[in-house]
Predict the structure.
Amino acid sequence: MELQAVLMAAGGGSRMTDLTYSTPKPMLPVGNKPLMWYPLNLLERVGFEEVIVITTKEVQKMMSTDPKMKPDVKMKMEVVCVPEDGDMGTADALRHIQQKIKTDILVVSCDLITDVALHEVVDLFRAHNATLAMLMSKAYEFTETVPGQKGKKRTAEQRDFVGVDQSGKRLLFMANEADLEDGLSVRKSIIRKHPRMHIKTGLVDAHLYCLKKAVVDFLTENKSISSIRGELVPYLVRKQFSNAVNSQKVKDDSEDQTQKNNEKLLISSRDESLLQLAQERSCWNDHRGDMCEAYHGGKLRCYVHIMDQGLCYRVNTLAAYIEANRQAPKLFDEPPVHSSAAISERCQVGSDSIIGAQCQIADKTSIKRSTIGVSSTVKERVKVTNSIVMHGVTIEEGCNIQGSVICSNAIIGRGADLKYCLVGNGQRIEPEVSRDQRMG
Amino acid sequence: MCNSCAFYHFAAVFVSFNHLLHGFEKTGGIERAKSEGKELTKEEKQRLRKEKKQQKKNKEKKDDRASQESGREKQGVSSAASAPQPSAQSAAQKAPSAVPAPVPVPASEAPAPAPAPADKPAKSKAELKAERRARQEAERASKQGKKGDPGQPGAAGKPKAPASELQPVVKRLPEHIQVDNPDVLKKLAKKLERQQTPGQNSAKKIPLRLDYGYKVSLFSHLHQYSRKAPLTQQLSIPSTVIHPAIVRLGLQYSQGIVAGSNARSVALLHAFRQVIRDYTTPPNEELSRDLVNRLKPYISFLNQCRPLSASMGNAIKYIKKEISNIPSQCKEEEAKSKLLHCIEWYIKEKIILAAKAIAESSIEKISDGDVILIYGCSSLVNHILCEAFEKSRKFRVIVVDSRPRLEGREALRRLVQRGISCTYVLISAVSYILPEVSKVFLGAHALLANGYVMSRVGTSQIALVAKAFNVPVLVCCETYKFCERVQTDSFVSNELDDPDDLIVTRKGRTQLENWQQEPSLGLLNLVYDVTPPDFVDLVITELGMIPCTSVPVVLRVKNVDQ
């Protein structure tokens, strides 16, 4: 077997607590499907047959009991539960399932919605015998007004500085603004080997990584690393150019723990002698201009595939969630209006709206650019525009809902007028209420 | 031309027999001639009119004729059929004519009251014999006709001699040089479908890689793939149909990461080692047979990623032979370790030790003060030069390079790293620097059975110019690259690389960016060419220094050994 898929679905959704305080993030409906369904669908489409899902007990319960929450994929899902309260980072989770991992792994985050051709990432991993291959995408500017946010102010997101080489595939440098106190410093060894480096800041990390099995073994030794994105990836990128890596010494007698760990990583990423022979005889080099052999003799290599076309969203903020709801229907072939929804003839449902199963849409309603969840009821003369209505919601007559997000099981009273609001789970909105949260 | 010959022969036969049946054949012949765009001469048109009249008359007379006459006619027809056929077409046309011959006869027999019932049993025996003979001739003729036909729409640009009708056996062309024949492509697709790994359901199969871009007409019979459309696009990601080591290898081949004859063979054997290590014999199967079947789809996969080289072909033959020679009572672990050992032995002896032996012989040929010219990046030639430098020979090297691969840069880097003084030129400057050169060392991709050297495109140019300047040309080649093929030109069998490699951006402008929109523009990126043995002075192999024409002797000796 070549690759094992691991889906990280234990995240909390700390940047959209309004939505996630009642529904765990992997189960948030996007286009009437749970968020988890999208990465699972991606894996299934490219041919994976098994996936290890790391999630919390709550999500596991929801998956098995709640029919509308159940992601209907044909793959065999092995669910591993981790405690919710602990600060279990993604790397800690990998350490937890170390016994199950037999080959190289493909780690995907549950909030990734993308239509990338996955073979591009995996081909980099295979062809160059890389230790890490990841996916990044040009960041998308969310222009829609986000409900519940007073005014247009956004918290300054910490930028990521990503350095790639001339070909745009080899990852040379990765750092987050938060870690750089006084300016960006680049090691001379990197510049000597790759004199031309392109540093990009407008990229979003898709949290899709191909990792060698040796890295998982390395993690079990090195318990200080707890997050893949935050610590492991920058560590591996740095280690590509570390002097210890390129030294010719085979056995290192020092007692230093970090040195020993480096050795482990090295020994397992050292190519076999035949492969070495093949590389020597091959007339290929990944760079030119200096006297070094291919890859500068380095055994640890990190690659990145940067998507410039196509969908790639990480649903970890409210704005992303709303945008994903708009774009997600492109990813599946089901008709936007579910067959079991009872829609009366005299209502207008726009072509870009999604109506879930067992919905009841009454007369004279107008639904444009919106998503109506499963088992929701929309009474007469309601206008829903640009909104997301989750499951089991009741909207009484005469309401006007614009640009809002209505969470599950909420009841909107008669004649309410909501603009850019966020209604929480199970809330009741009094009739004749008018709220506009666009301007603070 | 052969068609018109057939026509005249045909006419001669027709003149000698005025039979109702010939009308049938003649129209067939004229239709064929018409379809091939030949103009009918006046005589032929007259003949056609005559036949049609005859046909009408004969149809009226048919029922009146006695069975005796038709019996005689049939015998005549069958003897005509057995006469040496000048053309396959006439034979094919006679075939359907001979078959309906027996048909009208029984029809005429039944309605017409037998004039002499007493003679009937005797005649019917003769008739039956004649029928049988006619039928046999018809079958034989139709078989010949079938064999002759596919030879003609075969490989374009290949002059197919009309002598094929004289030979009963027509050689089949390999599939990889018949890309413009849609039937061959269909056959290939079917073959790939059938070549699933045993035990898998039919949903999983080896995908067919599609050709890319407009192909220059002279080379339209070869595959042309794009590097941006790898075969892995059509495979599932955790590849279960094909072993992951083979998928990785295929990717490395198609992206050019493993390039060069020796490197490709070594990488192939390394991947096979992993396949053998991970192999388990399924129940009720024998390792010797099952493993070979397991390897077949892998080899087709690799062939689609990049056409196999001659050295790889020989390595595969060797492995298959070793696998089939495993005795059936051998246990699996033993068999596997034996195979792994064989692979190691092959690499050690045929590649590593051979390189050593060749280096030793070549060093004798390098004297102090030599100026050696090399082309491109041949791992063997680089090895030789480095060894010679270690043995403190004083020489300098001129590296000749060519677009679009620019492999000479890599050779230059390796030599300069050792300390050898080098000069670097492009192939367009070869005639300017040749006066300085004392020897030319060339590497080879394969050595063909008629003494031709198949190597990177441009090698034959270098050999030609060197010959013109009377500079000795030495080709270094291990014996495992010797192949039984015979080729005299570079068109018939070659490899077409990605045409987009020829696109270059200078000063921010890419002129050939939209080459696909130009209807009459084709980009050609050839990989190999063949050098005739007249331009090569010596071939240095591990068996010694032989002239180019001794290659078949070496091959014969190798076959005897094995």
Q: What stands out?
A: Chain B touches chain A through 40 residues (CB under 8 Å). Residues 332-365 of chain B form the longest helix (34 residues). Chain B has a mean pLDDT of 79.
